[in-house]
Input
Amino acid sequence: MKKYRSQDWFGKTDKDGFIHRSWMKNQGIPQHEFDGRPVIGICNTWSELTPCNAHFRLLAERVKLGVAEAGGFAVEFPVISLGETVIRPTAMLFRNLLSMDVEESIRGNPLDGVVLLCGCDKTTPGPVMGAASVDIPTLVLSGGPMLNGKYEGKDVGSGTDLWKFNEAVRLGKMSPNELFGAEACFARSNGHCMTMGTASTMACMVEALGLTLPGNAAIPAVDARRYVMAHMAGQQIVEMVRANRVISQIITRQSLENAIKVNAAIGGSTNAVIHLLAFAGRLGIPLSLDDFDRLARGIPLLANLMPSGKYLMEDFYYAGGLSVVIRELGKRLHQDCLTANGSSIGRNCADAKCFNRDVIHPFDNPVMPDAGIAVVKGNLCPNGALLKPSAASPALMKHRGRAVVFENIEDYHSRIDSPDLDVDKDCVLVLKMVGPRGYPGMPEVGNMGLPKKVLDQGVKDMVRISDGRMSGTAFGTVFLHVSPESALGGPLALVRNGDMIEVDVPKRRLHLDISDAELEKRRKQWQSPSPVASRGYASLYVRHVMQADQGADFDFLRGKSGSVVMRDSH
Output
């Protein structure tokens, strides 16, 4: 019989083996569970403070059934959970902490394989980052999107329509009571955002990488087939352990390239960039911002989903799901990349059928001909910044405007609706101090709401620039992830009201129109802000977080430590 990692705990006949088995037996576990069966950890990000993941206890029970059927021994364990909608100051501040929790929980316990229960925005990348640093057989099970929102007889999308409703309230076109009524219409079932926001994007990314069973990304959370997927995931992880199919065999340079192209084809979130960079960093795979721009060029938008399109994830599933998109991309992907079920991504999707061509377009008749993430550079962002063209206004892809500067988020909130704000529709809104170190945590505030005096004129979009992120559900001509960030004295910190800024997306250029001499003069005058935290985790974060173009991971977490634990506990 093959000796699994867990037998270093449960297979011993000394006092340590006695301790490991005996205390586990107080849960009513019989001896035969310890006799060489693969031990499968079910890593659960369930929490009532993470509404997207509130149904994960039920999913875990279905995974356990599959594990038992396949001859494994399932043990469920909790890790911290990050709900995008509730936690302050931003869930991104704690993504790396979640990854550390997952990594150490896996490595320090008698686990031969792990199923990661993932859903809300950071509860997919955090666990995957942690598991990658241990590198044992790993399978991801997503929680699934909510059912379509329904409001006044129309489909509404979480996040995407919220931004529209918020502006309607600010303009007096929607009453607070009407907004309260719309709330329950947005979130009417278990699951994460049903737009192609970050949660749905990351569910698609892990499927495109091969870390899930085929079809995982799009099944609605409350569809019975989601529970069938959980059951099958339990069976599959046992097979992965027996085959020793570890995560580093699945996340490779080639599978990351596939994910980048798939992200373009689905109109996925800009947040995918920062998370995929972090995945690569954990596994020592060279990946840069330039790769995202280069690889996604020429990839058309095929998924007609909010915020870039019309439909929602429930419709995407009924139309055939991500497998159809992967099949449509064909030879543009590395078809032979290994996936969790032991087959290649190409074979998994070879027979995929589309049942609604208005939801998933064919490659030769796309929603948009070129939809990948645009990476711009220039003296305003030497290390790069991002734009999502499919959610932006074509008329603003080449633009020159006067900067209206907000020094921090408090400055923005205090002045954005002031009638005295010197702004017009051609101005460029600049928000500083919302990067990884500056906030801290790089919040989703880059899609800042437009000034009320401009909204009153019927303006729907303006160029906006920041070192923060934006929700995957958001839209607009928004330049994000400016690196280096303003808190480090990057050029964004030096922008002043009235400066002219030039945008040229076709040429991938973002330029502050001042001389090099003036820029250097301002740099010498700039004073570093006081640290935003002096103790605790936030202090650790500020001292060790890398910039957005490096995935905003901690410098000491790059790479992996493997699964070996050299010393016992007794």
Remarks:
- The mean pLDDT is 95.
- The first helix runs from residue 7 to 10.
- The chain is about 35% helix and 10% strand.
